[in-house]
Write a structure and sequence with these properties.
The protein is an all-beta fold. The chain is built from no helices and 36 strands. The protein is globular, with a radius of gyration of 23 Å. The two termini are 43 Å apart.
Length: 499
């Protein structure tokens, strides 16, 4: 089902459905299964895919795309990422779960109408700060060459890294991961010819001394950003170290720009931490050194940039960010604080930083809390909320939903070891797709503010909090902020990690 919501008129179009029995072909192919006229305008798109091959008991997988601009006579490509709800990964028709297979894993060429072969998903939970994914060819079922394409996603369906198609002897993909969190590896055999088989496994990777935070892979979209406005996005720095450089992908060679890093102040930019000098932009990848040496602690920061004129920049049309902050400042001035900046929603930005000499200590899970079931334990208190039926997260169970009244909250106190330098709080949404509006406090300190952030069912959100509390247990509170009575916090599970 394709559900279009016109954001200009605030109305839904009639649901567009593919008839049962019809299917969309494999990646890279174009299959016309229906045609409908829709008016020009800007739309949010919800896609429901019925996939009982993934999960016969809970077959509907949902994905979203935001701010799709429909223009007469123009082709508008839209990408929707649908991660299966079922913890079992997708397999092939012959092998229902790649993760349940004993090696070797067999991939069989499907033939026409596409030139692609079998696809599969592999799901794993990271056990190390670096994970190495290894694939080697096995000749048990045939020795013909393969061209295997691998793409790694996080639990929210965000693209992380890929390995381009290659004639396999062996392929390795290594990536910085958060211990205890799920990851998804998509694989497609893009070769021709006979069946072939592979061995696939994961292992602890080599601790890297260089980590990039933000969006370092070039986006395919572009948008014109106004000069003299400082724009930026929040980033979570999980491992501190020396700030080596700022980076972006430039689509311009005439504008000047500056990048800056600001500390977080209750869910918005606070004080200036580091910045670059004014730099003439050049087409392609740009990396700029900070004006002074800066050592970063783990935590949330705001990665910002300002241009001397209206400038075409690289954006991700498929990732809608609901809390971009902006602040007017005549170029090249970067204020010492951005307190009072404004918020609005737009597409994700191609900004990143590189941190070197980082300590590779990993996160350890110290507490897990079932928000919907454990109200009698862990120092639980609440007011104004209610139990709420889960849909795909622990079907049949319950979660807790705030009342959207500006005063309801849930609060839990969790024990700590007392030796951590950094905490990571991870919580999982539950229920139908909705905007989240809530403030998160740790021991009375505001650490994150969610303002109309759209989250699908089962999304895992992470908050990095430096340990300024010593050995004191953490009292974590989710407080409704009354931004929108119809968009409230709904939580199923919470995990506390230490590093």
């Amino acid at each position: 089902d394709f559900i279009f919501y016109n954001t200009n008129t605030e109305t839904y179009l009639p649901t567009i459905s593919i008839n049962p029995g019809q299917s969309v072909q494999q990646p890279g192919s174009t299959t016309s299964v229906l045609s409908k006229d829709i008016a020009a305008g800007t739309y949010d798109l919800t896609v429901h895919i019925h996939n009982d091959f993934t999960d016969e008991f809970n077959p509907v997988v949902t994905g979203y795309a935001f701010n799709i601009v429909v223009t007469p006579g123009m082709v508008t490509p839209v990408t929707v990422t649908c991660i299966p709800n079922n913890p079992d990964p997708i397999g092939t028709a012959a092998f229902p779960s790649v993760g349940q297979l004993s090696v070797p894993w067999v991939m069989t060429q499907d033939g026409p109408p596409t030139s692609f072969g079998t696809e599969g998903w592999y799901e794993f939970t990271a056990t190390s700060a670096m994970t190495r994914i290894m694939v080697t060819r096995d000749n048990t079922y045939g020795a013909s060459n393969a061209s295997l394409y691998m793409v790694l996603f996080d639990s929210n369906g965000n693209y992380l890294a890929d390995v381009a198609p290659d004639e396999l002897g062996a392929t390795t993909l290594e990536y910085a991961t958060s211990i205890g969190m799920p990851y998804y590896l998509a694989m497609a055999d893009m070769g021709e010819g006979d069946s072939r088989s592979f061995n696939l496994w994961t292992e602890a990777g080599t601790a890297s001394t260089t980590i990039q935070y933000g969006n370092s892979t070039q986006f395919s979209g572009s948008n014109n950003w106004s000069g003299n406005y400082i724009f930026g996005i929040p980033i979570s720095v999980s491992t501190g170290g020396e700030l080596a450089n700022f980076g972006t992908w430039s689509l311009n060679d005439t504008s000047y720009m500056r990048m800056a890093l600001y500390a977080d102040n209750g869910g918005q930019p606070g004080d200036l931490v580091a910045s670059t000098e004014s730099t003439l932009m050049t087409n392609g990848k740009m990396e700029m050194a900070p004006g002074a040496s800066v050592s970063l602690e783990a935590g949330t920061y705001w990665l910002m940039a300002v241009y001397d004129r209206d400038t075409l920049v690289s954006v991700n049309w498929n990732n809608y960010v609901s809390n971009i902050r902006y602040y007017y400042s005549t170029y090249p001035t970067l204020p010492s604080s951005l307190t009072g900046s404004s918020s609005y929603s737009h597409y994700d930005l191609n900004y990143y930083i590189t941190v070197t000499g980082a300590s590779q200590a990993s996160y350890t899970l110290v507490s897990e809390f079932d928000i919907g079931e454990d109200q009698t334990s862990s120092g639980w208190t609440s007011t104004g909320g209610y139990l709420y039926q889960n849909y795909t997260v622990n079907p049949g169970g319950e979660s807790w939903r705030l009342a959207g009244d500006g005063s309801s909250y849930i609060q839990m106190t969790l024990p700590v070891t007392g030796s951590a330098s950094t905490y990571k709080i991870a919580w999982q949404t539950s229920g139908w797709y909705h905007p989240t509006n809530a403030d998160v406090y740790v021991n009375g300190t505001l650490v994150r503010s969610y303002v109309s952030e759209y989250m699908g069912d089962g999304v895992i959100n992470e908050i990095i909090v430096p340990n300024t509390f010593g050995t004191t247990p953490l009292t974590i509170r989710f407080q409704d902020n009354a931004y929108d009575p119809n968009g409230v916090f709904t939580g199923a599970y919470l995990w506390l990690y230490e590093k």
